[in-house]
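Please, does this match?
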Amino acid sequence: MGDAGSLPLFLGSVVAISLTGVMMPGPVTAVTIAKGYRHRQAGALVALGHGVIELPLIVLLYFGFASFSETTEVRIAVGLVGGLMLLWMALSILRTKPLAISAGHDSPRGSVTAGVVTTSSNPYFFLWWATVGAALLASAQEFGGGAVAAMAAIHWLCDAGWLLLISLVVFKSKRLWTDKVHRAVFGVCAAVLGGFGIWFIYSGIDLAVTG
């Protein structure tokens, strides 16, 4: 059992590491920007979808299944399927014209689904949890089950807080967007999703050939 006095320091490190990870631009950030144009709470909903994948994974890691996500077969499958899903999302964003986005209605459930898709399609998300996340979990276990639950909650709250901030900023500032800005922002989001999709597919193929 870890020293109770060092528990706040450990939880502080969870905050720092979690924020460092979530602030890195990636598929989840890109889809949050796209969804935030219509819903100010989109970031929290994307985070909810993210949590649908992440929290059960933490439970599995707690019970010793860390090696499963590191297997070659799983990494290849996630890379190929996930890459194709991200490419599809990128094309969907590119095909939607600015006026259609502004006038259309997007159910909040779409943001939850986007969070699930962008999280489950990212092989590096699973790799992060099999390495960095597993190390954090091992440290939390030294303080007991309560610390494990606190670590999981704090990590998810960091994700949710940052993504909600992004969607709020996008939603509040959208009135200032010209058609050109609109196309540029959504073009960048599509490029990010497409770029990661291509990279994930390449990584999956490369792993299948060399692994």
About this structure: The chain is about 80% helix and 0% strand. The radius of gyration is 18 Å.
